Automatic annotation (TrEMBL):
Gene3D superfamilies: Glutaredoxin (3.40.30.10)
Name this protein carries in UniProt: Thioredoxin 2
Segments traversing the membrane: 6-24
Transmembrane helix listed as a keyword: yes
Organism taxonomic ancestry: Bacteria, Bacillati, Bacillota, Bacilli, Bacillales
GO molecular function: protein-disulfide reductase activity
Length: 166
């Protein structure tokens, strides 16, 4: 009788561990569960393929304009001019510059498309990115001008964007 109880408890423990594993696995593959806001722009990637630093900034308001490489290319090829911001969540310079860029965009009522080069590392070569952050203005499918690094202020971003987009 004692052995049956012992084996029953072991079986129950195994079932609980399996249930917890299945629950955790299902949670990590649900994009909506990665962020409180449900923001998930990496539609061409499975949630479990994202790096931890990217997941950490999903709810950060400064990083809410992310696109996939295909979406970025479509935007670049349009006839309208567009700024593309190449950044990485592991880049300390990006962490300092992105809030300044957001302030500049608010001041000039502008928009920017963001591409996370940590998740899409082919962008380094495709767009000749040498450092992050890099802000590039494209028009008619061609690069017009770029700003590499942190200009140190929202005014620096504003001056660059207004001068280039004219």
């Amino acid at each position: 009788m004692g052995n049956k109880i012992f084996y029953g408890i072991i079986a129950l423990i195994v079932i609980v561990f399996v249930a917890v594993f299945v629950f955790v696995s299902n949670q990590s593959s649900d994009p909506d569960s990665l962020s409180e806001s449900g923001y998930y722009p990496y539609t061409d990637k499975e949630p479990e393929d994202l790096s931890g630093p990217t997941i950490d900034v999903l709810d950060n308001e400064d990083y809410q304009s992310n696109k996939t490489p295909a979406e970025v290319e479509e935007i670049i090829q349009s006839e309208e001019g567009e700024f593309v911001y190449f950044w990485s969540p592991t880049c300390v310079h990006c962490q300092a510059a992105t809030p300044l860029l957001t302030d500049a965009l608010d001041n000039i009522d502008g928009e920017v498309t963001q591409l996370n080069v940590l998740e899409y590392d082919e962008a380094w070569q495709t767009y000749n990115i040498e450092a992050t952050p890099t802000l590039v203005y494209f028009k008619d499918g061609k690069e017009v001008e770029r700003l590499e690094g942190n200009p140190g202020s929202a005014d620096g971003f504003e001056e660059f964007m207004t001068a280039v987009a004219e």
